[in-house]
Amino acid sequence: MTQTLTPAKVTVDRKWQLFIDGKFEDGSSERTLINPATGEVLCKVAEADGPLVEKAIKAARKAFDQGPWPRMTAQERSAFLFKLADKIDEHAEELAHLETLNGGKPLREAQYDVADSAGCFRYYAGLITKPTGQTVDVGAPSVTQIVREPIGVCGQIIPWNFPLLMAAWKLAPCLAAGNTSVLKPSEYTPLSVIRLAEILQEAGLPDGVVNIVLGDGKVGLPIAQSDLVDKVAFTGSVRTGKIVAQAALGNLKKVTLELGGKSPMVVFDDVDVDNAVDYALFAIFCNSGQVCSAGSRFVVHEKIHDEFVKKFTTRAKQIVVGPGFDEETEMGPLVSELQMKRVMEYIEIGKKEGAKLESGGEQLSGKQFGKGFYIAPTVFTNVEPTMKIVQEEIFGPVAVVQKFKTEEEAIELANGTPFGLAGAVFTNDVTRAFKVVKAIKAGITWINGYHNTYNECPWGGYKQSGWGRELGTYGLDGYTEIKQINLNLDPQPTGWFQKR
Question: Which CATH number is associated with domain 263-447?
């Protein structure tokens, strides 16, 4: 296998800077990015410190309080977002290559992410001009309206698994509603987001409306803490999400958290096993398992358990692992050496806990992998509900298979973790399908499918998988305040006090 760029004109040998108040500028320091496919140095990017983060927040504050963006009509903001989506399409090949180069995912997955990002901006460009609010008959000589207004400055912190797409999920409803933003991409995968900043600038976005600061959690924390920030939206781990929520308490800012999952795929004995295995492979090994909604637990009926495990394991061993630019690659590397080590630690924990390793479980090495961060698709069986590999999010290509006898047991196992982001049910019995899927405590569910995601539909979870929803009309609601306006039509004052 060789990793070669296709004709897209992509270069990383350039300055990768912060974007503050409509201008690109150097940071207080630099971070070295590593290509996860090769383990070699990719490039250097600027990093912010406290004063630079504060500068970005103040720019966003000024742009909201004094700038034109919140005062534009919905039609004007809509036109800009449509224009932005068109520009993303124009640069789609370059953006997809940056995603693959920086994060390691197969190029075809990155291409889908870029197209979906443009689609997200188009969705909110269309939604913002649609009817909203209410006029209420209150039984008095009054006209009462309920309207939605922008919240203000929004701090947005996104993860490394879908850099451009997560930026779109955050920025599209934020901008559509008339807010301003301070966005922090992951320290591991900032390249496509910086390129997006350049596209925003080219499209004519007013200064200060979107500001992009780079760095690790030390950069994200001041955003969540700042009294000049009115809302914080975070996607990432439960542990970090709790830190963000605590930091936001200072001025009781609005908080949206899209956190982790340990999502179940329940498979009954009346299904086509080969079809279920196809979906199971996609559920867990898409993006090397680095997906918050990954189907990482397969809850399989005892009658087909052994057949499912045999076919699933056989197919998992056949997955082509390699660099994202190789056309044959079906699964790429993990995003970083640190993440690879974390996943390997969980695999060792699973072995020590007594789970049976059916396949994988090792770091891949050899000429075709170089010094990249590759782990073989891994499958565990003979697991107990209390095991760490069953209870905790691994965020890598590691699946566990659980066995059940009855429908009630399947539901209990499906709900048997602190998470509730996603889940699926596979059965040919439509009555059972709806009964079980409604019993699963999760925000996103599928019947006889997995990973379908739509800009038009809400995304978020139950329990420790987060607060609030993104996407759909719910995503736009999350970037607005609700105001009640009462117009008194009675010229005579009324009240408790007599006229004198």
Answer: 3.40.309.10
